[in-house]
């Protein structure tokens, strides 16, 4: 998709499996896939927005980009009443 539509006016919203949670997805996504995604995004002529879980690995992987730390209500807060009610995420952009 990125190679096909890579134009200065393109905008990409990407939603990969969060790092360290890949086992919860049906499709395999490895650490090498996270790196491959990062390398693909280096070539984007337009803009991209990429949400990820808040972890040091992702912060280091995307250190050359804009990273905003945000909090949102935890999707499973009713299931895990003794857990954090907010979930920390990173919003990574190239703008």
Automatic annotation (TrEMBL):
GO terms for biological process: DNA restriction-modification system; methylation; mismatch repair. This is DNA adenine methylase. InterPro entries: MeTrfase_D12, SAM-dependent_MTases_sf. Pfam families: MethyltransfD12 (PF02086). Keywords: Methyltransferase, S-adenosyl-L-methionine, Transferase. Signal peptide: none annotated. SUPFAM superfamilies: S-adenosyl-L-methionine-dependent methyltransferases (SSF53335). GO terms for molecular function: S-adenosyl-L-methionine binding; sequence-specific DNA binding; site-specific DNA-methyltransferase (adenine-specific) activity.
